[in-house]
Amino acid sequence: MKPRRLVYLSGTRADFGLMRHTLQALAAHPALDVSVAVTGMHLDAAYGHTVDDIVASGLRIAGRMPTDVQARDRAGMARAVAQTMLGLTELLAADPPDALLLLGDRGEMLAGAAAALHLGIPAVHVHGGERSGTVDEPMRHAISKLATYHFAATAESRERLIAMGEEPARVFEVGAPGLDDLPAAGAQPRDAALRALGLDPQTARPYVLVVFHPVVQEAEDAAAQTEALAQGLRQAGAGADFDVIWLAPNADAGSGAIADALQAQRW
């Protein structure tokens, strides 16, 4: 019997990190042919060219669809959705899979859901039905309305999807796939983790890992919000009682201001 082909759409290290274990498990199943369509920040050197992480995972790349992630403004985010939809439409139309797998609430996932709907390809949405209170929430719900099947993380999310009009038989409570990686992450020795961060295990203070992404509706306030966060960390003892390891923000509107504010704060 011919394996069923699944394509997962990935635009950032964030979504791929949550799905890596699940995708590898699917790829190991003899009845499935799994590949990854790569776009967004994965393909930009400024964000670490994290497509290399996908290759290193052993998963096959179905195609690469570059988008402009350097604009870091609202118009740039809208253009990136359009660019993803154009590139993905060409990829899927040339060799249609049995299903397109999507996760979360980002613009590339909305582009994927719309492309799949028009091409008659079932879209499977993971983490639908959740609440966030930001621009991500309507994006998430829009993706769910375009999707064919839903893998909800919680019973509450499943009920919300059904309340939105989704057919109960197509909505499954499966849990959060990102939890599968926790045992491996917890097994990492502290010394090895510190060395990977460039810290000396013998002299390192306790450390705090911080990531601050912009709220798109408040992009104009991103710099002030970053400065307030940095001030709060210093008041709590950063630099004296503990070290701070900052993760770079995503490419959403306001992220440039966050990066500039961090440079000015000398973090």
- Average pLDDT for all residues: 93
> What are the low-pLDDT stretches, counting only 5+ consecutive residues below 50?
none
Tally of individual helices: 10
- Number of domains as seen in the coordinates: 2
Number of strands: 9
- Which CATH architecture of the largest domain? 3-Layer(aba) Sandwich
Name the CATH class of the largest domain: Alpha Beta
The percentage of residues in β strands lies in 15-25%
Succession of helices and strands: EHEHEHEHEHEHEHHEHEH
Major sheet characteristics: 7 strands, parallel
Query: End-to-end span in angstroms?
Result: 56 Å
- Any idea of the CATH topology of the largest domain? Rossmann fold
Verbal overview:
With 267 residues, this protein is of the alpha/beta class. The chain folds into two domains: 180 residues, Rossmann fold, CATH 3.40.50.2000; 77 residues, no CATH class. 42% of the residues lie in helices and 18% in strands. The protein is built from ten helices and nine strands. The chain has a seven-stranded parallel β-sheet with strand order 3-2-1-4-5-6-7, sandwiched between helices. Strand 8, helix 9 and strand 9 form a beta-alpha-beta unit. The longest helix has 21 residues. The chain starts with a strand and ends with a helix. The model has no long low-confidence stretch (mean pLDDT 93).
